[in-house]
UniProtKB/TrEMBL annotation:
It comes from Rhizobium puerariae. The gene is ligD. The chain holds residues 540 to 844 of 844 of the full protein. The keyword Transit peptide does not apply. It comes from the Bacteria. This is DNA ligase (ATP). Keywords: ATP-binding, DNA damage, DNA recombination, DNA repair, DNA-binding, DNA-directed DNA polymerase, Exonuclease, Hydrolase, Ligase, Manganese, Metal-binding, Multifunctional enzyme, Nuclease, Nucleotide-binding, Nucleotidyltransferase, Transferase. Signal peptide: none annotated.
Amino acid sequence: EGEPVNAAQDRKPPKRTVSLTHPDRLYWPDAGVTKAGLADYYTEVWRLMAPFVVNRPLALVRGPDGIEKPLFFQKHAWKGMTRNVVLVKDPADPGEEYISIRDLDGLLGLVQGATLEVHPWGSNLDDWEKPDMVNIDLDPGEGVSWTEIIAAAHEVKRRFEEMGLAPFVKTSGGKGLHVVAPVKPKAEWPEVKAAMKALADGMAGDTPDKYVSTITKSKRTGKILIDYLRNGRGNTAVAPYSTRARPGAPVSMPLAWDELGGAIGPNYFTVDNTPARIARQAGDPWGDFRKAEAPIGFGGKKQGR
Ligand code: ATP
Ligand code: MN
Ligand code: MN
């Protein structure tokens, strides 16, 4: 009320034809989020989420009985999967079939299959070998403050910019932040992963009291793991706007850099408060994501100070 009207509110809701069995099943008992509530949430965010989940191989976290019961990390088709979900053969290994979606009905087909988290690859089906985005996952060890995680995100931002990449930030919906950049799909996975490893090793090398870049040191109290391992072929990271199978029904929320601060924690945004956020927002903080893509490697600038 009294807020400027977002043009998006005038748009018709996207077409939706998947019917849900057990719509009242509680997936997040603590937050009161049902299967039908999850489908409604994804219908609301679809317009913003679509570019990050359509036409990519997907891994899923499924939980047929909700977050308090067993969860499955799923990369392949399962029995009873709705026909709105598309199977795609890995061109490098046609024996491997992955899950993919083309539209909102595909995502709702995943909801029908009890999908509680959506984790896309960093490359799309046009060229599986060439990533079109990179992700640096900031994983805080014990005792790391939110202020320190934000400082790490700004340091990754600076290094991305030095490489000629456009950095975007989102909450993980869990404990940390993800710094993501759109990439012109030119370089292949090994080169891109090497560039992200160099970034992580650079941070850990320059500030070893704050940052580590190897998993074996990741349990170190008071330090942040600069996790670059989301950037290999077949590796995934949670999608922007995906829900998380964790208490409170948190979501991974795209932010503007100037929103980063004490008021918004890593799991601040949820299925419950996201519709109000996206209706209120003047713009969508990741709206220019695709337009900002830049090459990594030969064409890009050199990493380092
Ligand atoms: P947090 O902020 O709590 O670290 P996150 O999404 O960054 O949240 P995780 O949930 O620990 O971190 O997952 C890290 C990544 O590893 C996920 O993005 C996911 O794509 C991948 N992953 C998670 N579980 C599995 C699994 N069982 N097998 C393979 N990859 C997985
Ligand atoms: Mn993480
Ligand atoms: Mn991680």
